[in-house]
Design a protein that fits this description.
Two copies of one chain form a homodimer.
Chain A (H helix, E strand, L loop, with lengths): L2 H11 L4 E4 L6 H8 L5 E4 L3 H15 L2 E7 H18 L2 E8 L15 H6 L4 E4 L6 H13 L5 E7 H5 L19 H11 L4 E5 L6 H14 L2 E4 L6 E3 L7 E2 L4 H7 L5 E5 L23 E6 L5 H12 L21 H11 L4 E6 L7 H6 L4 E4 L9 H11 L5 E6 H4 L5 H7 L4 E7 L4 H9 L7 H7 L8 H7 L4 E4 L2 H12 L5 E6 L3
Parallel strand pairs in A: 1-2, 1-3, 3-4, 4-6, 5-6, 7-8, 7-11, 8-10, 11-12, 13-14, 13-15, 15-16, 16-18, 17-18
Antiparallel strand pairs in A: 9-14
Helix pairs in contact in A: 1-2, 1-6, 3-4, 3-14, 8-11, 9-11, 12-20
Chain lengths: ~525, ~525
């Protein structure tokens, strides 16, 4: 038995049984250890952004901790962006990052790099295993760290000699420290405040699905306060029958209007609302001047307990729920306006939607409200390229549920390699690529900045044209069947068809220009 | 005029006129400034690894500094791996990384991240512009930092308000500090040592092309020492007529044999030789026990001056040069053995070869020795995914020369988005993807570790099969014409055909299994 064996054994003993991997030479003993432990499900991704995004999607849907296997500092770097998103989602991930053997680090080998530096920029917990005998304990503490605060990024650096050296016995992760809770007096005060005019309960993190979401709905019903979720929430229970939640807006002016009349916010699992970007002459925050904030339960505290305690304080009530509503069948060109209806009509029950449609997805929310019940995973960190990887992880975590990945063409290009993993693992994912031939969001942002007239250099930064991407060919290259649609009715039919077909399908939805 | 205008003006005034970019919202004012300065060539890449790798390839071939435009911490993270390679190559790059406006950073916006942390892990110089008035000076110092030590990674963080705020006038980069030089007495001692039996001159960095490479060849001829280059050099002048240089080996045992008889090494622009990875029971370094090292001119010092001074010390001599040799026409299956002959025979004069063929490329060196003169760019940092991006940058820097990108299929998948940039910019690149349907190198490494028998979990980490990638479809998806070949003679013909065709072509070379 070696250090790598004890690492895999410790992960399994600690309830971590899924590893998204892009291994290299320094991790060969870990790979050999995976071999000896077929209970560990290994999912190969052909790029590390696919690995870390899949871990995020897995953790969001399973509620558990996902493991990743990455190769030295550059491998971690490639996974950085989706770990950024995962850290903002508050999920638990243990990254195992191979490094050179200790003795090799005194020389300038090509792959020697600052793993601690790149990992530390996005991890809550980083440790280098000192030797093979410490690996089991280190791994156990990594899992505990990943479970702390409801879900964090923990990175264990595994030198090759710590993996290959002799070691004995696996360990088991200790319980993470208990989640922090607000004082009961603070809960009582918050409950009182929520009954006043202009009050809003702002909820995120684990407060937007399952029992906590029900509690949030009860609180809103009992107090008459508004119930508000961020525009980009990690996991939002939605559709008919779900507690009615209002979602913040992306565009600054629309978000200011959204918060009109809000005088006081109680924050549970959520940070103070902030606009996505700052713009000259526009406010960073959306609420009216003078509105107050009560950071009752910050992200990483006990959201479920806090919401339950608020229910106790405000008294019983039945949540207001989204009514079932089927939009009119959309026809004609595929536009941000018709996309929502097409998706809502074709959505199978209990779909997991991963939304990175950017401009095409900005208008999705109203259509989804009355759609069949579903979970919606959004881009919590704003680093684009999360959609296809998250869809991989969500599908691994939730077999039997369809995953619908909605992505812009620009976004999808960052991590398109995830298509291959969908094909290999026969994942039930429908990918819709909204082909608007460019970074449409940047045109919008340029206008937000007041620049509407621009020349060749800018234009060529916004357009993904000349040549256009051929998404059917890209899907074929990765082994994923596909079709192309150019009308809203064809899009609806294609989503319905793909939903009934096991395995992945890619739909290229050509947007009207 | 705003901060972004002064930034672009300063780059241009400092001789930096090419920017590889993947912009986001926080960089819109920079994009607007690029518009106003059409002298700046902007090259859009659809993923940041493509941006930074292109900057590396550009810098290697131009000898100048490339600029990149990246979007906040995750954008930098996506570019980390190829910056790692670039830092090991010793090239000059100025990264401009947009960030939120200063006032926005007090809130928890989704894209807020630790830019200093991720950038610091791979940059020699990092600075955050304090405000619009400082941007020009900051940019000028960034360029000087990127030129220091012969070429370094400099990262300038540009908050959105520093870009959009009013500013006046561009600056010009000061001269970088002079390169360090060894003491003349040390040069004289090294010259003496090189005349003794068992001496080797180990050269890397700028010492392997142009006038310094000629000098290195003269020194070897005058002293009788061996002239040795790393296996992965940033830019190696090769082919018929180039000074004869021996290249280190990748496989540990072969590298030990290569260094057999070496008693003393003079290092110029090179670190002490080290094997790529450490393995249990195998040495980290390749030279015989007791061999000594003279770190005469460390990487980042004045390699050209040192080699010229050594020539003065050892006296005039004509370098031994590679003889022209045309291998027999290869036939039959495409194997690591036949690849070299096919490439060497089809190579146009003055090709820039970017080699990341990994296993298929391990045997390329002997065939290239007598091939038409060329430059060879290798993976200096070992972070895979450099080939296609470097080819983009090399082609931008060296119009009129053909670029031949040799890559494994596993490697190419990391940054395949670069194909699109080749098509858009009509770059004269021939991409050969050696399709061995897997990470063949990992099978080799597993064997190096003594593991030859492995099961499903390991196997599925090594094979990129089920499904196989279809590289013709992937090329088509990115707008690049392609063909597929399955014999060595067809490969030779395809490379010759592509070389005669303007713009990019991808050749999928199916390896014999």
């Amino acid at each position: 038995m070696n250090g790598a064996d004890t690492l895999v054994g410790t992960l399994l003993a600690s309830g971590v049984d899924t590893c998204f991997a892009n291994p290299g030479t320094s991790e060969m003993h870990f790979v050999a250890a995976l071999d000896a432990n077929p209970d560990m499900r290994c999912v190969l991704c052909l790029f590390e952004g696919g690995v870390t995004g899949a871990a995020d999607g897995y953790a969001r849907m399973s509620g558990g901790v996902a493991a990743t296997l990455l190769h030295l500092a550059p491998g971690f770097g490639n996974g950085h962006a989706n770990l950024h998103n995962a850290s903002k989602a508050g999920v638990g991930i243990v990254n195992v990052v191979g490094d050179h053997a200790q003795r090799h680090l005194r020389y300038e080998a090509p792959l020697k790099g600052d793993i601690e530096g790149v990992a530390g920029s996005v991890s809550s917990w980083v440790r280098r295993a000192a030797g093979p005998e410490s690996v089991a304990r280190d791994a156990a503490e990594a899992v505990a760290a990943a479970r702390s605060g409801g879900g964090r990024i923990a990175t264990l650096i595994l030198p090759a000699d710590a993996a290959w050296g002799a070691a004995e016995g696996a360990a088991k992760a200790p319980a993470p420290p208990p989640l922090l809770r607000p004082d009961p007096a603070q809960v009582a005060a918050a409950a009182d405040a929520l009954r006043r005019p202009g009050a809003a309960l702002v909820v995120s993190g684990p407060g937007l699905h399952g029992a906590p979401a029900e509690d949030a709905g009860r609180i809103a019903a009992a107090t008459g306060c508004r119930l508000i979720a961020p525009f980009f929430a990690p996991r939002l229970r939605g559709g008919a029958g779900a507690p009615a939640v209002e979602r913040m807006q992306y565009v600054v002016e629309e978000n200011s209007a959204f918060f009109d009349g809000v005088a006081h916010m109680v924050l549970v699992g959520a940070d103070r609302p902030v606009n996505f970007f700052a713009y000259p002459g526009k406010p960073s925050t959306p609420e009216p001047p003078g509105a107050t904030h009560d950071p009752l339960c910050p992200p990483g505290w006990d959201v479920a307990w806090t919401l339950a305690a608020l229910v106790d304080a405000v008294g019983p009530a039945e949540p207001r729920r989204n009514a079932s509503a089927r939009p009119e069948a959309p026809t004609g060109p595929i536009t941000p306006q018709t996309v929502g209806a097409a998706v809502a009509r074709a959505l199978p029950d209990e779909t997991v939607i991963v939304n990175e449609a950017v401009t095409a997805g900005l208008t999705l929310a109203p259509a989804l409200r009355g759609a069949p019940p579903h979970d919606l995973l959004s881009n919590t960190g704003g680093a684009i390229g999360m959609c296809l990887p998250l869809a991989v992880g969500a599908a691994v975590a939730a077999p039997g549920r369809r995953v619908l990945a909605l992505t812009g063409d620009g976004s999808a290009m960052y991590t398109l390699q995830s298509l291959w993993t969908m094909a290999r693992e026969r994942l039930d994912v429908t990918v819709v690529v909204f082909a608007n031939r460019g970074y449409r969001i940047l045109r919008l942002e340029m206008a937000n900045l007041g620049v509407t007239d621009y020349g060749r250099n800018a234009q060529r930064m916004f357009d993904v044209e000349d040549p256009s991407l051929d998404w059917q060919a890209l899907a074929c290259g990765h082994g994923v069947p596909s079709e192309r649609v150019e009308t809203a009715e064809a899009l609806e039919a294609a989503i319905a068809r793909a939903s009934a077909t096991p395995g992945p399908t890619l739909i290229e939805a050509v947007m009207a220009s």
